[in-house]
Amino acid sequence: MHPAISVICFTVLSGAGFGLIALTTALAFMPGLIALSNGEILFAGVLGTVLATLGLLASTLHLANPRNAWRAFSRFRTSWLSREAVFAVLFYPCAGLWLGAVAFGLSAVLIDLGAALSLVLSLLTVFSTGMIYASLRAIPRWNSPLVPLNYLLLGLASGALLLTTILTVTRAGAMGSDVLMLTLVLLVLAGLGKALYFLWMGTPQGPSINTALGMTRGQARLLESGQGGRSNFLDTEFRFQIDGKTLRRLRWLFGLLGVALPVVAVALLSAGDGFFLIFLILPVTLFGYGVERWLFFAEAQHVVNLFYGAQRV
Amino acid sequence: MRLGLVIDMDTCVGCQACVVACKQWNSSGTLGPLTDYHAYADDPSGVAFNRVRSYEVGDYPHSKTVNMPMSCLHCDTAECVTVCPTGASYKREEDGIVLVDQDKCMGCNLCAWACPYGARELDDSTGVMKKCTLCVDRIYDESLPENDRQPACVLTCPTHARFFGDFDDPDSKVSRLVRDRGGQQPMAELGYNPVNRYLPPRPKAQAEQADTEAKPLQERLREWADMSIAP
């Protein structure tokens, strides 16, 4: 599949933003674990909302006819893209209620209600993003429960790293070990989830060129791909090919930038060191997650490739 | 009604005439234009509703060339319709034809991703998804002679490898062909339940043979003359 930059920015930024919101709201219900001050909650809430908004705006760049984007809310019953759009838009009034109630010191009931709704909607939005891909049977490597799991874990892990960075600022490095432990666990879980996905993806399990042609008794080879050459829609959208060596290197690059480096940085923080390192590592990790998202598209094979001579997808 | 096509891979010669006829009719049809990109440059391409690809099946000398035309198969389980967030993609209740409402499409490509057959193509010039309409602007046109109320690809096929009809009618030509020749659904295991069917090449050993005794030359000449004048 063709990796579109707008979709990569969208999923990474909104994943991180909604992940930060989900963690902050969840922690607000668990003051015994990590007690966040009102200032910290507002900082995290606004930053998360801004990142999610930037991501959602980036997603509209992917549309060929954005004038009709408002219609995307109309098929909630069947379309995960529609569900994502509905959840993302419903999130804003709820986040407004939550952050407004915190900012103006309104009653605890309103704060809790806003936080609970924001928590649920942020997680649902990220889950729906994953399900957009996981629901496509025509792309066997996406058609797995691991995909929404990865989207959720990566979103929460990048959100946790953001929260750690915020607390590094507000608490001048003395943020306690609980938030660092939480970030470490989420970063490692996200890496493990992705490793599981890479492992699962190793063997093709989709249809073959034989079932595509209905000729199952002999080997089939493409002789002639008909009109179009290399530049029609099917070619550019589905026939994106990159060699396996580059793909493997990029997987390791993700492991380095998206897992190993942030884990080292957070470990250094917990040792009371590297306060400035975290500001350097945050964009590096988000870039690593961008690499992961690029790979997510580049490695997926649409079954239409079978008609163009691929033996399996 | 469940309208669709039967495509005979035994007789298709891969001449691309259906591709051209489709492009010609639909360029000015309800879902047109089918935009061409850099049509006069080195690498011309463009939107098409129908593409024909050719394959070699089996190993020489036991190999066979198979041509496979591919347009929208108007699936019963049309996931291109269910994934569409705007409601632009729809499957008609009355005849099962899958269409795109050009006024509602936002060009997100998700339906094209959901289609396993590559039947949908985004038109860069208008920013909306385009696909085979089964010549919906032709098959119901009562100003055309009844014989002409068929998709352009079917009418033009020089080897009669394409048939159009109602799959809900067990006695229609298409239903009978599917029954008699073992009509197949490509990638049936994905469960999209395509309406269009493909007739596999006939096994050579079972090619139709004359089972009567040889007729006298005079009678054969007369039959040949009859066939030549009025097939």
Task: Walk me through what this model shows.
The complex is a heterodimer of chains A (313) and B (231). Chain A is mainly alpha-helical and 313 residues long. Chain A has one domain (5-307): Formate dehydrogenase/DMSO reductase fold. Chain A is built from 11 helices and 1 strand; from the N terminus they run αααααααβαααα. In chain A, α2 (38-60) packs across α5 (146-170) and α5 (146-170) packs antiparallel against α6. Chain A is globular. The model of chain A has no long low-confidence stretch (mean pLDDT 92). Chain B has 231 residues and is α+β, with helices and mostly antiparallel strands. Chain B has one domain (3-229): Alpha-Beta Plaits (2-Layer Sandwich). Chain B is built from 7 helices and 11 strands. Chain B has helices at 17-27, 79-82, 110-114, 136-139, 152-156, 173-181, 217-229, and strands at 3-8, 36-37, 45-46, 51-57, 64-70, 89-91, 98-100, 120-123, 128-131, 162-166, 197-199. Chain B has a 3-stranded mixed β-sheet. In chain B, a hairpin with a 7-residue loop joins β2 (36-37) and β3 (45-46). Chain B is globular.
Strand adjacency order, main sheet of chain B: 10-1-11
Task: Quickly give the CATH architecture of chain A.
Answer: Up-down Bundle
* CATH fold field value of chain B: Alpha-Beta Plaits
Please give the CATH class of chain B.
Answer: Alpha Beta
Instruction: Please state the average pLDDT score of chain A.
Output: 92
In quaternary terms, these chains amount to heterodimer
Question: Helicity of chain B, in percent?
Answer: 10-25%
Number of strands of chain B: 11
Work out the number of β strands of chain A.
1
Structural class call of chain B reads: alpha+beta
Q: Tell me about the biggest sheet of chain A?
A: none
